[in-house]
Design brief:
370 residues, mainly alpha, 14 helices, 0% strand
Amino acid sequence: MKKPAASPRNPGPSARVGVASPPEPGTQRAARAARSVYGAIVLAAVLVVAGLLAAQLDTLLVAVMITVIISLPLSWCAERLMRLGVPRPLGALVGLLCGLAVTAGLVVLLAPTLTSQAQTLINATPGLVHSVELKLSRLVGTPPGRLAQQLQHDATAFVRQPSQLVGPIASIGLSAVTVVAGLIAAVITAYFIAAWPDQLIRGALSLFPPSARGDAHRTLQRIRGAWLGWMRGVGISMLLIAVLLYLALGVGVGLPFALTFSVLSGIAEIVPYLGALASGIPPVAYALTISPTTAAEVLAIYIAVHQVEANLISPLVMSRSVHLHPAVIAFGVVAVGEVFGFIGLLIAVPILSLVGILIDELWVQRRQAR
């Protein structure tokens, strides 16, 4: 049989063109490397822009995050009560009232003792300063009394010129009023979010194309679970630290003002690492006025208690929910504090978990899928 002759309509094999050969493996690797570099540059640019926007809108962002965080336990309570047939708005209201009742009960239970101990500690401050000066003078060989004289001079200057106190007092009062008003507004807004969340969720999902709404909803659920786990872990850590320190300092060592130091240390647990470090300075300094041995005992107690918390609560509760390495938390807390200020330290872990989840969803998982 004769082979069909080549024609314009039926070109021969040698005349066929336009069929691209598959790229070589080296070319594919180079293309993937180029896409990775471009993706890293885009991600860095997005992070820089986000940081600049956060620096300009830090107060608003912190207020929004605090409001959402407050709404999460109310929403959790409402969902549990809905299983018993309780309407969601009523369940959220029950959760809000329970939270306020627990807070008020703790204040009524601890406030009188804390106030009395704080007043006693303030009244004893001059004697404590003098005692510390005597101990330091024996070590360095300088005459005591200079620090006390300086404190007395500064106090006399303020008394003779009380107008100098007007500015600081007015600033502190205005800040306190602003914080209280903002907290009340956040609690009210959080209740409405927990009572009627469907419209907000639908509005947030409508910003995404229909094909991506499932992934967006899953991401929101991951963030919600991480933040609830963080709140549960912080609550357990605060209670554990306060109780263990009070038993060790008050019952074991017999340190005065043990309740005040224990409660302050428990509250400071909301700031990872830095809070534990800062909360241990006042009791150790006070114990130093008693004796170096007492100061060493208090320091050893603080180290032991925080080691128990770090090896028990963090692995079992915090790490499973937040999924953040301790080094990431340590460096991230400092970075968040620089961007958002002191208030940002209180919600540093939720901010870091939010960033980590978004990077995982938008970058890591998509790169792995490719």
